[in-house]
Design a protein that fits this description.
The protein has 309 residues and is α+β, with helices and mostly antiparallel strands. It has helices at 2-56, 61-86, 91-108, 110-125, 165-169, 196-206, 245-264; strands at 133-135, 140-146, 150-154, 160-164, 174-175, 181-191, 218-227, 231-241, 272-276. The strands form 2 sheets. A 5-stranded antiparallel β-sheet has the order 4-3-2-1-5. Homoheptamer.
Length: 309
């Protein structure tokens, strides 16, 4: 009798299990189908949004990547919720579990959440855009993509840089592409016997002509910076439009040498030509009187009209 009772109980258990499996199997297949359709729909919508952004031509490249990622993740989350509902999971219990799990995951992934917050601030304040060349304490490169978690950069020699957003938000940064123009300066050491006025005129006049083969400097200016017993140091500077800085840095020193020798003779051969960057505390870095700060007057913002001197 005990053996017969055990067999009967086992048969009842397996019949019940088979009946429950038969009832649950359609829901499981439906949930799997929903997941497959949802993931396919997420990829398709992300691709559609990407093509739409590319077709309009009016969307900033900086926000394109994050918006596409938000669309994809939103569809995936909705798909998971619908699939779990299909399996019989109650939404109230599911939200409670998700809340507890979210708290635990948030504590475990504080760095990831920090990157998301930093990514949102980067997209909101936009200290740089896609295509800008930026420099931080550890690396420098051109921005190729700005995401919710990381930014992709490319160094000048073609290396790929995977930078978490928090490493870009919490440090100082130089954006070499933000300003429409940049001040470049060169220190030129000449023999003492070279005519100072002639050297200054030769330099400023050479860059006043419209010559496409010459590195273009706006507002060229040359002045005497130092004078020693056997040499004189001239600072030559001007503003270069964004996009022409590389050409100016490569060819201006050679053009300075050729101009001085051509205009003033072999005696004007420079002893040294060195590119310099005036310090923030050096008042000579201001090209005009309207650029220099004055006590009691706010600094002139970009786009303001300079006061007449």
């Amino acid at each position: 009798m005990p053996i017969q009772d055990t067999l009967a109980s086992s048969q009842t258990f397996f019949r019940t299990l088979a009946a429950q499996a038969a009832a649950f199997l359609p829901n499981l297949l439906a949930a799997i189908l929903i997941l497959a359709i949802g993931f396919f729909l997420a990829r398709w919508l992300a691709s559609l949004v990407s093509r739409a952004f590319g077709a309009t031509g009016h969307t900033d490249e900086t926000v394109r990547g994050p918006l596409i990622a938000i669309v994809r993740y939103l569809v995936i989350v909705l798909t998971l919720l619908v699939a779990l509902t299909q399996l019989g999971v109650q939404m109230t219990s599911l939200l409670a579990v998700l809340g507890a799990a979210g708290l635990a995951i948030g504590l475990a992934l504080q760095g990831t959440l920090t990157n998301i917050a930093a990514g949102i601030m980067l997209l909101w304040l936009r200290p740089f855009r896609v295509g800008d060349y930026i420099e931080t304490q550890t690396f420098a490169g051109s921005v190729r993509e700005i995401g919710l978690f990381v930014c992709h950069l490319e160094t000048f020699d073609g290396l790929f840089v995977f930078a978490p957003n928090s490493t870009l938000w919490n440090v100082w940064m130089r954006n070499h592409s933000r300003a429409p123009s940049r001040l470049l300066a060169w220190s030129i050491t000449l023999p003492r016997e070279v005519d100072l006025a002639g050297a200054r005129a030769a330099l400023t006049q050479a860059w006043s002509r419209e010559d496409e083969g010459r590195s273009q400097l706006a507002e060229p200016e040359a002045f005497l910076d130092q004078l020693t017993a056997d040499a004189q140091v001239i600072v030559f500077r001007g503003r270069v439009q964004e996009g022409s800085t590389t050409r100016a840095q490569r060819w201006t020193a050679q053009t300075i040498r050729e101009t001085l020798v051509e205009r003033l003779g072999a005696a004007a051969e420079p002893r040294a030509i060195q590119r310099i960057v005036p310090g923030d505390a050096d008042p000579s870095r201001y090209l005009g009187s309207g650029d220099a700060p004055v006590a009691g007057r706010p600094a002139r913002q970009e786009g303001d009209t300079a006061p007449s001197s």
